[in-house]
Specification:
The chain is mainly α. It contains 14 helices and no strands. α4 packs antiparallel against α5, α6 runs antiparallel to α7 and α8 packs antiparallel against α9. It starts with a helix and ends with a helix. About 3% of the residues have low confidence.
Length: 247
């Protein structure tokens, strides 16, 4: 009889534990579904089912930041709460950095952005957004480091990368060294010709001569550009070099 009662009590405990687990899983599932929505009411309701939902907390901060419905101090606090739940949540670090910049807390913003940079995967969007924040903090090294990765990985963004660099950096050599990889060298020369930046093209061609890894049509286009600019001697030297390499 005692064995029967003991077995029965164990079954009751197992059933109770199963029900608790099912309830927890259900709450987490509901929280996750609601957090995927875009309206703040649903997201907040989702957070009420799971206070540890870092995504929901981040989204609330982002929406409040975008629509300016909360004070900056409160938005910062919400981002911190999201990171407390998930310290590896890259977008929350970026959002926190942006908020800190708006609050003129540049030192803290730089720490948050540096932390984000260490966590950013191969996400072009996050690298682009972070690079602009780095520029606003005056960290040229960090900004160009990320822009180089963007330009290398996404040909469609290269012109935008080159545009922002020439708008914010008054140093052709620095842009060439820190932003332009061998893979983007041809596109950068094409960009400079289109923008009629003759002096900058000279630096690029010096590097091209050691690499010679740009398409022939880009090199020939550059020769034509030099002829139009009255630099016939340089154009002829390059043309001879191209013929020699093609022989």
């Amino acid at each position: 009889m005692a064995k029967f009662l003991n077995c029965k009590s164990q079954i009751v405990v197992l059933i109770a534990l199963s029900l608790i687990i099912m309830l927890v899983v259900l709450r987490l599932g509901i929280s996750s579904v609601l957090a995927d929505r875009e309206d703040i009411e649903s997201i907040e309701k989702g957070l009420s089912f799971n206070q540890s939902n870092a995504l929901a907390t981040y989204k609330i901060a982002r929406i409040n930041q975008f629509f300016m419905t909360e004070e900056e101090e409160r938005i910062k606090e919400i981002y911190v709460n999201s990171l407390r739940e998930n310290p590896l949540f890259t977008v929350a670090w970026i959002g926190l950095a942006e908020t800190l910049i708006e609050m003129d807390e540049d030192n803290k913003a730089h720490l948050a952005l540096t932390r984000a940079r260490g966590l950013i995967p191969s996400s072009i969007g996050l690298l682009w957004e972070s690079s602009l924040l780095a520029f606003s903090l005056g960290d040229i090294e960090l900004a160009t480091d990320m822009l180089k990765m963007v330009a290398k990985a996404d040909p469609k963004r290269r012109q935008r990368v080159f545009d922002i660099c020439h708008e914010l950096i008054d140093d052709y050599d620095l842009i060439l060294r820190r932003v332009v990889s061998d893979e983007t060298l041809g596109d950068y020369l094409r960009y400079l010709v289109a923008k009629d930046m003759l002096d900058a093209t000279y630096l690029v061609w010096q590097r091209v001569e050691t690499k010679m890894n740009i398409p022939d049509e880009v090199a020939l286009s550059y020769v034509n550009y030099l002829m139009k600019k009255g630099d016939a001697d340089r154009a002829k030297r390059i043309q001879m070099r191209l013929r020699s390499d093609g022989a």
